[in-house]
Every structure is written in structure tokens, then in C-alpha cells.
Amino acid sequence: MKFLSYIKDSAHGIALSIDEQVLGLSSDDPNYPGSLDDLIGGPPTALADAAQTLIGRGEPLDLADLTLLPPCTPGKIICVGLNYADHAAEANLQVPEHPVLFSRFASSVIGAGAPIWLPRVSTALDFEGELAAIIGKPGRYIGEENALDHVVGYSVFNDATIRDYQLRNPQWMIGKNFDGTGPFGPTLVTSDELPPGASGLAIETRLNGVTVQKSSTDQLIFNVGRLIASISEAITLEPRDVIVTGTPSGVGHVRKPQLHMRSGDVVEVEIERIGLLRNPVTPEAI
User: Fold this and answer.
1) Which residues pair with 220 in a beta bridge?
2) Are residues 13 and 101 in the same domain?
3) Residue 43 sits in which domain range?
4) CA-CA to 75 of 20 to 30 Å: which in 101, 177, 221, 242?
5) So what's the pLDDT on residue 93?
6) 100 exposed, middle or buried (CB, 10 Å; 0-12, 13-18, 19+)?
7) CA distance 19 to 14
């Protein structure tokens, strides 16, 4: 099942993408099955029941008429650094023995189609195409053998980074959390539609139509199950928490010459069988 969240005519809605159609219901419709925020972490059949309602009652929609939202409102956003060996190599850093973790805040997240803000204080805005795993079942001390049972679905993330702020000190937090720099979505694809851990899927980032990153999710150093097991040793994972699993090689900051995103650019991240996340770049709005 492939779900989207949207706004149309000022009303929030939920949609199902199926057989090249998008079928949706807005919150003001009596058949509205609830938001993805409500359904994630709900009863085991909540998403399947919503899908049946959308198939039977949903209105055909044109994506051009919708404002696409992130597939859910994240609780915790836990990002993973240096999780592809080729990216660690291009950064002249050793492959880590344990996952390198940092946090993003929900205040940085935007939906597909929304502008990524180029801040007034920097021009070092970089792209990072990544697979996102969305937690649907809570847990602590989760065993790796059961970890994927806690994932409700997968989406696409662009961990766009202000590099000069990121590299000012050993803590990456500020460069990863500028407002308007975390595109997420547009789809949530349920786990049952994909290989275990969303492994073996092509991932590609394009800047103005030119491929700048290209890899496969089977190249993750720490796969989704391992990440969940490791993170949950310290942190209780809860529904709508998002694990952003790391980026492959090709980031702009290490290129010679460097390739940073500029106003007027369009960046796309596409993951096979999950979807396409497309955003323009524009000067900061404040």
C-alpha cells in the first residue's frame, strides 16, 4: 500500500496510490478514515482498513491540485551518518564500527514540492538522498531478529545540510537542522510491499536533471534491522519516529569543484518502488 498526506482546498486528506490512480478523502468527508498520523501505530489492520475505504469511497485526485505533506508528523527523527562505505571514503573518514547517530527536529521538515530554503547566512547547501524507515510499533531493547516488525513503512528523505555550519565543530546538529531543509515523502509505502528492510532498492539523487548520487540500499553498512536494534538499546522507539538511514557517495561538498545547491535549482531523490521526492531551492523566506 502506498499512502500520501495532502491538503486540498484548505482541508487535510489521505490518499492511496494504486494502479496509476490516486484516490483520496478529505477530513471533511464522512468516510474519512483518519490521518496517517492517527493510523500509524493504531490497530494492526488500521492501514489496510483505510486502504479499503479509499478504494471503495475515495475521490480520484490529480497530484497537481494537491499540496503534498510529509507522510507523517515525525516524533523523533534519528539520522545515521557515514552508513555507506563509499560516502565514508569520499569524506576521508573510517567506516564506523557502530552507527553514527544524530537528530533532526520536526521543525526542519517539509513536504514534496515545498521549497528548500537557502539560508541568508550560507551558500553551502548540500543534498543527501536517503531511505527513511517509519516506526509503527513501539519498543525498547528490540532484538535485530524482530526489528523489522516495528517498521510500518518506508519513505524518501533529503537530509539537506548546511555544510559550513555542520563542520564548525564535531557536533553536526546545527548544520542538519536549518528551517526548511528536510524534505520528506511524499509516499509511505507499507513494509509488506517491499523487500525486508527495503534492501536492494536503487536510490538516486538528481540535481537539475543530472544524476549526482546513485547506489542501492543493499549497500548500507548498518541495515534497518541493525539500526533499530542499536538505537533501541538507548531510546524507546515510538510510532511515527523516523530513522533516516544515511546517504551514498556523491555529495556536493567533497567534489572538486564543490557543488552546492543554489536558488532556482531543483533536486530530486528517487528510491525504487517507494517514490520520487522533488523540491525546488529558493532563498530563505524570512
Assistant:
1) 84
2) no
3) 2-68
4) 221
5) 79
6) middle
7) 17
